[in-house]
Amino acid sequence: MEKFELNDIKEIHVGDVPAAKKGIIDSLLGQDVHKDEIPFEHFSSYKKGHEIGSQVENLLKGDQSRDRH
Q: What is the value of pTM for the model shown?
């Protein structure tokens, strides 16, 4: 697995912050609960948020696996 650092997401610009937050939440939930609420013009922000959520989850999983060793 590629090494991921939290600093890697600092420079990601999401556009519409509320849509990105919903993307992060959906990503961490593992379900697209809020996806249908997002207006078309903010959908790219939702997708960026979803990506951030996935990266944060991977970071946390990596920390857990290091704690076990």
A: 0.76
